[in-house]
Amino acid sequence: xxxxxRVGLIGAGPWASSVHAPGIAEHPGTRLTTVWARRRDAAEExxxxxxxxVADDPDRLIDQVDVVAVAVPPSVQADIALRAAQAGKHVLxxxxxxxxxxxxxxxxxxxxxxxxASLVMLTLRFSPEVIDWLAEVGCMGGWxxxxxxxLSGALLGGAYSGxxxxxxxxxxxxxxxxxxxxxxxxxxxxxDVLAAHKTDNDxxxxxxxxxxxxxxxxxxSMHLPMRPTIVDLAVYGEHGHNTLGGRKTxxxxxxxxxxxxxxxxxxxxxxxxxxxxxxxxxxQHILDQALRKLA
Length: 295
What we know:
The protein is α/β, with parallel strands linked by helices. It has 10 helices and 12 strands. The protein has helices at 14-26, 40-49, 58-64, 74-86, 101-113, 128-140, 164-174, 176-187, 251-268, 277-294; strands at residues 5-10, 30-36, 53-54, 67-70, 90-93, 118-120, 143-151, 190-198, 204-210, 215-221, 230-237, 240-244. The strands form 2 sheets. The protein has a 6-stranded parallel β-sheet, sandwiched between helices. Strand 9 (204-210) and strand 10 form a beta hairpin. The chain is globular. The N and C termini lie far apart (54 Å). Residues 5-114 form the Gfo/Idh/MocA-like oxidoreductase N-terminal domain.
């Protein structure tokens, strides 16, 4: 077996603890070697579970690893991931890439210029049921529209309810990238946000314009008492109505599949992928358009 990639994890919150850390530690191609978090006690607790070290600051972590996995708010990620890319480290990135398009462009550009492997945590894209559905709708073609609904109470209670950036930026920045990515992959590139409306309880309604005149709609919120979360995605056109079925793959399973791809990217030297940092930049433009349309 080739030597495992040394991975440093930035962040020790719920997603880092439940998905990133165990996924990296259990994958045969990676080894969790170092953790850094703003709260040192949280970093120590998480690192201790997997025999990893705790870095005194992000730059020391970057110096010690081959790969930097980031699980912090977008505005924080933009700075730390940029420093990792400038140091020549491959990166596993959260969505969205950054708080602004300029920061996302700077990060994606540095990753490309340094020929680094990157993947954005669009974990649904690594689920077999989603891969099969996208292949099916891609082969059929003839779609004229689509819709996505993503409704949850994640910010009303539970592991992520204390996440300030999610409260500040809402469903648009947290679940929006997933919805936009899947509609874009199914129907063609999203070129414009035609309309956007947001209610006081963070319920978003958007109309998206795709290439070739196709349109789609997105409805999403993380402040509705939905148990379980509702995630519906469909396309329609000359072949009727085709719906993505319910999720069968857990986040942990999808993350493991994503790591399979990432390790192969690093080993092979093929550093581009449909879910890499350039994809993240494309999604950042859509987020920016939505905010501008709302304004």
